[in-house]
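hey team, just a heads up i'm posting the complex here instead of the shared drive bc the drive is being weird again. everything in one block, sequence lines first with there labels, then the predicted structure for the whole assembly after. its two chains so it's a bit long, scroll down
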Amino acid sequence: MIIERRDIIRIAAGGVCGTMLTPVPWRLLDDSAKWSQNWSWIPPVPRGERTTKESYCTLCPAGCAIRAACVANHPVRLDGALCASGVAGHTVAYHPRRILAVPKTVPVHGRIGILDMGPRRAMSTLLAQAADAFGGAYLRMPDRDEATLVALADLMGRPRGSLGLDLEHTRTLVSFGAPVLERWASPSRVLPRWRTGELRVVQIEAVESRTALAANQWITDEADALKRAKLEEPAVIVDAEGRPSIAAMNVDLGAIGREGGIVARAPLPWRRVESAAAAPHSIDTLFIDASRAHQLVEWPVVRQWLASDATIVVFAPHESGLTKKAHYVLPVAAPFELVEDVETPPYSAVASYQVSQPLHPAPVVKFTAIDHLNAMLQASGRVPPSVSAPEMIKQRQELMASYRPKVARLSVTTVNVPPSEVEAGGELLLVVARAPDRGSPLITKLYEESGLFAPEHLVRMHPETAARLGVGSKATLLIETQHGLTRRSVLPDPAIRPGFLEITETDVTELCAGRVTAAKARKG
Amino acid sequence: MYGMVIDLDRCTGCGACMMACAVENNVPPAHEGATPRTGITWMRVYRANNGAPFPENRTAFFPIMCQQCGDHTPCVSVCPQNAIETDAETGIVDQMPQRCLGCRYCMAACPYHARYFNWWDPEWPAGMEKSLNPEVSPRMRGVVEKCNFCSGRYHAAKLKAAAAGKREINPADYVPACVEACPTQAISFRDIDKEPPEPDSFQLLAKLETKSKVYFRSQRQWIRDLAEKGIGHA
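-- predicted structure starts here --
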């Protein structure tokens, strides 16, 4: 038999066709697909022993209880009645712009101020002691967390922190702009009762907030709001701004000392540190502890403290809007990296103390703000606070073991109310909406990837307002208030009230001291 | 058959469900330059507006994920790779990224825009791979992914039941991450054969007769109308 070239071609072609009818090519395709889908840069999932850890969230002052599912001792999931930030709280330590480098020298000059962005912690007491050691001032933002209780305590001549809200028995909560169905007080105290109809929420707010949308009743104007609310049962009034005139309405409604109203709260067995008064332009070096940014930094308030050549030093775990304002940024531990504590959550009726155990076995950064400040105190020949933060937390735990609170019944019939504050007025009103902070790398799901929250570079306004200002979508707008100037991109949104501009801030606000302020805007 | 009922009157648009979903399913953070069109959010909360002038203007939040269609599942019928399968027991429409070739026919076919394409390799910041959920494999560039009612949790519940010598899972062992995370409990999850949705509940785009297994509830008529027309008409 002679094998010709044609036979070879036939055999080869037949082989190819035959192979197509066998599992071989499909197996090759399948394997190559699997191979191509397992690139080395796609990380494998973690393996190891599965455990759970109990702790408390320290991202905000509510201190929600959490149960962390861990693999190989690393947290992979947080369970509990948590907010959007809390659900991914364990990922904050992996922020892509984590601050790790420590500057060689940080110049400390003149009068020192230490601004505490996470008040009511053991750390706060240590920061106040460090401020004393520097001969400086311990400072805080206006207390917006418990604004109404602070205003009432001042009116009643009681110490701040001595009042609480009996939310567990409140039937009707009237809120003047407070985000009561968002990140307010302890969400686990409010939301379950609102959901089951045990708590009625009346929101009095000029603009559409998430609370206004979900509230049982939304009243857009403050004038005669209480009459329109038609309160048929005992109510409690809270105000986002803590205006004395509104806080005092609780006295008229008989909400003081009543079940479900404002009640006396026993103090914790240690002294609560309060903000010192700082004269205008008196601070030459301002340290800002932003390791726990519980509050929005109202920059107009900060600016009035600062001398013209002031140095700003920020302690922060990762880059943020606030760190952009700093001359020096020093790294500190992220949430869930070290032992921390949470004192009585805002609006709580009873005093409490929680200790948050670390979830990450090996913190990326072990420093805290007080560690940096102690080093600076020692370098300048001063005496730093005698105890460390973990030691102070331990001392407080021991004090709590023998703590037996005594609460006197609260009764007030009248208070002296100062004249009403002048409302912000003008052609345009600027509203600052506080959105979840950008600590977790996954927070992009709520901003860039979905638009659920407007990113910080946008200003939302009604299309009519945009037309009046002569700007269209994506146009650049210069917004000016008495506090400053900013440039934002226009996003027309029919949900915004005509005449209002709404901007989102996550950690620092440049233009407002408070939530609403008069503004001017022009094409820029 | 498992299904979800979402009470839109209780949704405050906080986004906790979206975050919990991303944590549970190892969805990576946004790539630089990602937009709402190119981002990956298996669960996405949309804002919908009634379009009325102020003060009657109202916004509502619609949490939308794969609606787990029952009949005429559009994505299953168009997939050339058989990369999508409907589980007969649970009714879960599951996506198999290993089979997906990235043609995106399913994305075009899905009337709910609930499918997402991996435009980039998944990337987590350094160290964050330690926080990934060990039950869910990360997906690769070039494939489509979507909500699967956290089927990893279902398989874990099945294993747990099998270890205890049972065939039926304990319902408490299988709850999707978004349901667990919702602070107002607006989302409920159940075996809809045993516990059907409330009579006043409705489906998104019911006219398409996809027999979706995600139901919604609201007392507000404009929201019900919107569910019929589609949220894009808000």
